[in-house]
Amino acid sequence: MPANIEIINGDQIGGCITVISTGKARIVIDFGENLPGAEKESKVEFDWKKEKIDAVFFTHYHGDHIGRFMEIPEDVPMYMGKVTYKVMKNIRSARRDWAAVNEMNRRLKSGNINFIEKAKPVTVKDIVVTPYTVDHSAFDAYMFLVEADGTNILHTGDYRDHGHRGRTVKNGVEHNTMLDVIQYHVHRNDRQVDILITEGTMMGERLKEDYFSEKDLQKWATTDLMKDNRHVFLKVSSTNVDTLASFYQAAKANKIKMYANSYVLEQFRTYRAAGQANKTHMYDFYGTELFPFEEGPDAAETLRKLDKMRKEGFIAIVSETEHYQKIMDALQDVKPVLVYSMWEGYIDPKKENCYNKNLADFCKKYNAIPKHTSGHAYPSFIAQVITAVNPTQCIWPIHTEFRDSFFDLDISDELKAKIKK
Ligand SMILES: [Zn+2]
């Protein structure tokens, strides 16, 4: 029996749920929140009792993919990356949400939460799911090859090729990591993909955004930015590991110290361990110091640290809250700059649904310089992935508000005819 696929919320960025069934088994890929700004504000009701799901697989730790995992009943096994689990637990610890932390510990112990590893297949009755790592702004992000009773499905999750893990150099030759995985692993022994489910965040209006890679960002921060500025505040998501690494490497090259709060320092330890386990020192974040406010604004230690920051320079991860602004204001004498390295939609009043006034006011107050690398593939790379996978039956766009733009991609007419309408 050919596998049956059902996609919920495929036509929005965030909250997409994929259900794959055979006669014997049913699995779900991703169960997250709608992103702020999604057209449909209400979340999908999913009847776990009625649906009888055998397992849920998570592509990565972004809330729009995994945010609702605590709603999943305990008799449904969950599969996620180890770093995903740690990063999520760090976030809940920082919020002092001890109920959630305990629940996560308990579910891990009971065997409800299971860790996946690249290229290690997981069998669920007559479905075999093999995870492969992909380049994304989240650290351990996976795509899934789902072999479901004779139907081969490749679910990309979120991906790109312009992050630090998108390219590797072997014997002096640059390789595209994802295209290599498709060629050497997915297509191994002439295995064909029948159905390709691919994200399309950057289709449509974001198509106009200029190409800007993590390497470009790192280079800009190392030279253009730090040539003139040794006092830098940085607003970036604490889970955007690649952008954090771009600035860490830039700081290291300029012998400038990084500063962050205790929660971000904990995430850094998680990224460092995971990076070193993958034989990279990109994510070491060595020597990062605690941002001074935590010692109290009047304490002698804070004043000593502020002086050190003035003298030695700094890259400090900041936020729009008041206790950050107090320190930022105290350091205005050295004329620091603020770099805003997040999607510009959040500070654009024209983007009514996603506009964050507090954040926008903060950026305005400190004359933020916007510099951001997208976590998602540019359309040109989506076209390359589709062409490389060359699915026999169907191309199914998800995680996009502009599925019609898939017909404008630079792919063959034969492939265009397979795009799901
Ligand atoms: Zn994501």
What is the element layout, followed by pairings?
Elements: E1 4-8, E2 17-21, E3 26-29, H1 48-51, E4 55-57, H2 63-66, E5 78-80, H3 82-94, H4 98-109, E6 113-115, E7 122-124, E8 127-134, E9 141-148, E10 151-155, E11 167-170, E12 173-176, H5 177-186, E13 195-199, H6 214-228, E14 231-235, H7 241-253, E15 258-260, H8 262-277, E16 289-290, H9 300-312, E17 314-317, H10 322-330, E18 337-340, H11 357-365, E19 369-370, H12 379-389, E20 394-398, H13 413-416
Helix pairs in contact: 3-4, 3-8, 5-12, 6-7
The structure holds zinc ion.
How would you portray this structure in words?
This protein is of the alpha/beta class. The chain has 2 domains: 4-207 and 376-416, Ribonuclease Z/Hydroxyacylglutathione hydrolase-like (Metallo-beta-lactamase, Chain A); 214-370, Rossmann fold. It is 32% helix and 20% strand. A hairpin with a 2-residue loop joins β9 (141-148) and β10. The longest helix has 16 residues, at 262-277. It starts with a strand and ends in a 5-residue tail after the last helix. The mean pLDDT is 93. Bound molecules: zinc ion.
